[in-house]
Amino acid sequence: MSVGRPEKPLAPDAGPATAFALELRRLRAAAGSPSYRELARRALFSASVLSDAAAGHRLPTLQVALAFAEACGGDRAVWERRWRAAAGRAGDGPGPAVKPAQQAPEPRLRAAAVRAVLPVPAQLPMEPRPLAGRARELGEARALTAAGAGPVPPLVIHGPTGVGKSALALRLAHELAADLPDGQLYVSLGAAADGRKDAPGIAGGMLRSLGIAPELIPDDPAQRIGLYRSVLYERRLLVVFDGTLQERQVRDLLVAAPHSRIVVTARSRLLGLDGVRRLALPVLGRDGSMDLLAGIVGTERLAAAPRAGLLLAEACGDLPLALTLAGRRLAARPEAFLSEAVAELLAADGLSGRLRVGDESLTERYEDAYRRLTPPARLLLHRFAATGAAPCVDGVIRTPSTALAHAPEPPREPVEPVEDVLEAVVDSGLLERTDVPGQYGLPPLVRQFALARAAATADGPEPAWHRPHGDRPAPGAARPFPAMTQETPA
Residue 257 and residue 259: Cα distance in Å, rounded? Predict the structure, then answer.
């Protein structure tokens, strides 16, 4: 093992930063006095950052101190306590016992050293709205991310558009962050990213946020992802991937780590991911909807007109985003009677199109999901919205084969099994499963959107999707899309 050059001696009574540096030097000596270049390879910080930590000019950040200690074989918990004790002593004296970062002895710090003295990353955005009616789901999420005997798998929170996945994930993340002192990383992968962010690019950005020196971040994508996984395995970090569109965006970035936690949100169940835990998020119960409205329009105002609140919750299908946008519109008119304001909001056709506040719009969320559907899936959604009482009762599709009626011409190209198309619409967040197997629910606001979209489409006549008369699939064969016989529920 190579030995580094001798360091400048430190006065034993020069303050808490110097005392802590002396402890780091003793630990390094006990480990055989490895060079700082060798420590850098173990600790994933540059040699200059680690050398500065033991120089005694200022107390290093907790991240750097723990990385230094672990690289020399020190116990992480013990050294965290020592660092916190030194930090506490540094703030008790009459003067600054620890030199601030801007008073470093080097006139021009290297970029890696500058990052090392920055605070640990705390990238979580604030919670977008009060979390109402989610006590059960939050408890399940806590249980699924609780420390156990081994590594904790990532958690995927999935559900329909506007159901509040991000809100639940952020509440959970803020709770988890208290026990993960090495930092919180947040990556938005939704409509704004449009799938352009790839795993190596995301990994590089997170490594830089953690203070990893640029020269230690590999150019090779696979090696960069490997370094990211190593950091997650060694440190106590929280990572949130919000609005994931496809498995490939996060597959290589998921790690079941003993100390770190990863939370993923997506409309889809992301069935292509292995080794994860999943939590399905449904719409609110009616009591939860009323609690959410009360938090926005005011408890007393809602108590004076409870029936108006119930009517609004029903019209919104108990969807948190819809209730939030409607509630903000009502809260912007405090002078109006709540019953009259709700009646005006519900009187106009197309409530879904009116749920817009500032740059937040329910229709834009639906449009984003709709654009990602294939033509057969769009057609299925249109037919779900347009069917009458026989195939659809109270918004429930009884069987897949009732979705479409007879068409006059046979298909000219191979068609997709209807079950696969149904799954695609469900994973888009526009269609819901019910508690009864084989039944699907179309939320009322999605129905309004789909009817308006079908009426405004400029794609020309719908294609003919049917099977020639008399042509029956073999037993066990996948049903083509769409089935042409209108079945009645058993």
Answer: 6
Q: φ, ψ for residue 365 (rounded to 5)?
A: -65, -45
Q: Which tokens in the block code for residue 431? A: 């269609």
Q: What is the pTM of this model?
A: 0.70
Distance of alpha carbon 368 from alpha carbon 449, whole angstroms: 12
Query: For the chain, percent helix, then strand, then coil, each to nearest 5?
Result: 45, 10, 45
Whether residue 60 has a cis bond before it, omega within 30° of 0: no
Cα–Cα distance, 153 to 373 (Å, whole number): 30
pLDDT digits (tens, 9 = 90+) for 113-169: 444 445 788 899 988 766 899 999 999 999 999 987 789 999 999 999 999 999 999
* Dihedral in degrees, nearest 10, Cα atoms 244, 248, 249, 250: 80
Three-state secondary-structure class, residue 374:
coil
> CB-based contacts of 312: which residues, under 8 Å, 6+ apart?
293, 323, 326, 342, 345, 346
- Edge to edge, what strands does the sheet with 261-266 contain? 184-188, 238-244, 261-266, 155-158, 277-280
Whole-number pLDDT of residue 12: 60
Q: Mean of the pLDDT values across residues 4-11?
A: 64
pLDDT tens column, 356-405: 888 889 999 999 999 989 888 888 888 888 873 223 334 444 444 444 44
- The two tokens of residue 475 are 């037993």
